[in-house]
Design goal:
Layout: H1 3-7, E1 16-21, H2 35-52, H3 57-63, E2 65-76, E3 85-95, E4 100-109, E5 114-127, H4 138-143
Length: 155
Amino acid sequence: MTDQEIENLADFPNSYWKRFQVTKVDLDGFHHVNNAVYLKWLDATVWEHTRAVGLTEEVCLKMERGMAAVRHEIKYLSSAFLNDEVVVFNWILSNDGRLRCSRLFQVVRLSDQKTILRAQSDYVSTNLTTGRPVKMPEIFKTDYAVTVPEGAKLV
């Protein structure tokens, strides 16, 4: 499947996405992907997106600023199984330019192009030394720009 074909599966344009292949270690006792693995995939996609916009770990550590997850809402719609290939799409849903930012996610099983999960995660700008919430630096306002159409939400 080409990149363009994958992008056409996304709920909205302007996504950042990452592919994953289901392995044996991803499975639970019922032989489908364990719930915690989906969250791991969402997180891996966020980290890759963050690096892609220039906010590497080194940059954030130097500023002593990062975005800390404070809430995840996940809707499991179907399952993925051994050897399935999935793609995790993510978008910036909101950024108040002060403290909070949210992302939307969609996970698609590529074999049948079915959306198997939708999620929303909320983040707070954090001082990496103290762990306390702190006003986000200017670069977070621009590099975490909203990428979904107005009114979009987890469905």
